[in-house]
Amino acid sequence: MANVHHAASGSYEFLVSLSIITTALVYLRGWVRLRSKPSSTPTNAAAAWRAWSFLVGLFFIWIAIASPVALLDEQLLTVHMVQHLLLMTLAPPLIWLATPVAPMTHGLPRHFVQTVMRPMFEWPPVQEVGKALANPVFCWLAATAALVGWHIPQVFAVGMQSGAWHIIEHASFLATGLLFWWPVIQPWPQASQGPGLSIILYLFLATLPCDILSGFLVFCDRVVYPAYFSSSHPFGMSTLGDQECAGALMWTCVTMVYFVAGAILTTRLLSPRGFHQPALVRAELPASIVPPKVPHKATHTAPPTLEAF
């Protein structure tokens, strides 16, 4: 196999690393500003655990895309699967749990927030696109399409042989991962909508394509991706053994993460106390991006979300 997607890996990894570091610094700048406010408490966006959650999420993205480990994805399908899991299953929920909107807007220059972000997010077409992207059905379909589509042997080969398509593959994994976890965690300013049980069903249905794909990789008696025949077989793994390990890793990781998320949501659903958005005080956010307050309806019960924790 003529692997070329790491031919310009040095500059690509540098740009990714620089972007991640810049994002982390902007977030931390805003987080420190929120933390220094008298109103900041451990339950709001300035809580210490939220900062750790965001930084660990960024670190997982760096491992998947720009670390030395990422260079092994052309040698081991297991490493490719690690990338996929980090970008779709682990990093996105950690980032959303950090409720990054408030820290990021406080970390960016206020003039930029006022003159660029406010007009952009108040533009009706952008708001309509945002509503469509936040639809759970679309989020589920997008994540499933990325998962299944990139693991079709012919499409997989294109991603392995083309540097540009390999970057698109990584970007689609991360983007659809963020979309998938949005309805589950519903970070501010997402308004809680719909019955809580639908989110639990949403997670259960999401395990099905992963189970089918991982089961196929584990129990198939042939190598699905011939590109790995030319691998140097690091760690003494055979091509078929590597494929089985990748499938088992996907099944184990996805099952555990979705089970934990479902268990938390079920606990919240059965809890007698009411569900509400965390104490992310509206006054903490720049007035330029605070959306109109939605009137509270006494008859409406918000679904449980991981954000409540």
Main sheet specs: none
What proportion of the residues is helical, as a percent range?
55-70%
Termini separation:
47 Å
Overall, the morphology is globular
Radius of gyration over all CA atoms, rounded: 21 Å
How does the helix and strand content classify structurally? mainly alpha
Give me the strand/helix succession.
HHHHHHHHHHH
Poorly predicted residue ranges: 274-304
Mean pLDDT: 81
Helical run tally: 11
Integer count of domains: 1
Q: How much of the residues is beta strand, in percent? A: under 5%
Explain what this protein looks like in three dimensions.
This protein has 309 residues and is mostly helical. It has one domain (10-279, 302-308). The protein has eleven helices and no strands. α3 (77-97) packs parallel to α11 (239-270) and α8 (153-161) packs across α9 (163-185). The longest helix is centred in the C-terminal third of the chain and has 32 residues, at 239-270.
